């Protein structure tokens, strides 16, 4: 399985928001802790909807949470 | 380990164990053995047994996690679980389709290459040399379904471990 080309700042944002745990973030966005772990590790690219929910929890834009690494795109 | 990955492990092990037990038993029978036991009832009983063993295995795994100091994850399925399930089902459909094609080709080949003067001694030999009775074809299709189920469970575990 190819790793996703999405980079993310979730780990940093969690710590900047009162050291939020993965479980707390999972509950806030309606996902499982395993999904948060997989996203942070770059093993899963979330849907647009989940990406927006994550951004909303951190009160930032989606592009502040996720960056795309594909060259030439 | 998530609830869904745990269930996949239990299902994989139970399907492997019951499938191995059933097919090693049937394939080793003499070719002229009376296979006309009530197959549908027997398979239904096996499926119910598999479900009961799965539930017991799931409870046992939860107990092991609790004893080990971990709190079992009981979160409801989310989009990643759904995506993993879809991909695993796609893989299982591929295996099922390929298996059915193999069975159909085997039926056609054995019809042409039938050797009536050299009767097979076991069910396994009958599957390789014919004649294929409707009951033997049913066993082959049951094997195809079992392989598809194993593929689905194994795929889920791989996707949970390696990413999707």
Which keywords apply here?
heterodimer, A: 73 residues, mainly alpha, two-stranded antiparallel sheet, 52% helix, 8% strand, B: 164 residues, elongated
Rounded mean pLDDT score of chain A: 90
**Number of helical segments with 4 or more residues of chain A:** 5
Distance between the termini of chain B: 16 Å
Radius of gyration of chain B: 19 Å
The secondary structure category of chain B is mainly alpha
What's the oligomerization state?
Answer: heterodimer
The proportion of residues forming helix of chain A, as a percent range, comes to 40-55%
Number of helix segments of chain B? 5
The shape of chain A, in one word, is globular
Q: Provide the β-strand percentage band of chain A.
A: 5-15%
Largest interface: A-B, 19 and 16 residues
What is the ordering of alpha helices and beta strands of chain A? Answer: EHHHHHE
Distance between the termini of chain A: 22 Å
Mean pLDDT, all residues of chain B = 83
